Amino acid sequence: ILFFNGKIRAELVVNNVGIKVDTHATYDDGQWHHIVMTYDGTVATTAANVKIYVDGVQVATSVVDNSLGTQ
């Protein structure tokens, strides 16, 4: 999990291919936030199974990269 352009980005990389998911909202408000990423690995070829929670609430996300699904 990292901070990118004010948004939260979750990345999962395996053998130089991966999944990147960004939040729709920005969190550069100067406040502390509890951030959790979950991934249901049962379908390893889709970024749809990556979820981001901020302060205990699942937030809207967009897929930035889903190259894991091309392998």
Gist?
By secondary structure, the protein is mainly β.
Total helical elements: 0
Distance, first to last CA = 23 Å
* H/E element sequence: EEEEEEE
Radius of gyration: 12 Å
The rough form would be described as globular
Written description of the protein model:
The model has no long low-confidence stretch (mean pLDDT 85). The protein starts with a strand and ends in a 5-residue tail after the last strand. Helix content is 0%, strand content 51%. It is globular, with a radius of gyration of 12 Å. The strands form 2 sheets. It has a 4-stranded antiparallel beta sheet with strand order 1-2-3-7, with no helix packed on it. The chain has a 3-stranded antiparallel beta sheet with strand order 4-5-6, with no helix packed on it. It is built from no helices and 7 strands. With 71 residues, the protein is an all-beta fold.
SSE diagram, text form:
Elements: E1 2-4, E2 7-14, E3 17-23, E4 35-39, E5 50-54, E6 57-58, E7 61-66
Antiparallel strand pairs: 1-2, 2-3, 3-7, 4-5, 5-6
List its salient traits.
globular; mainly beta; 71 residues
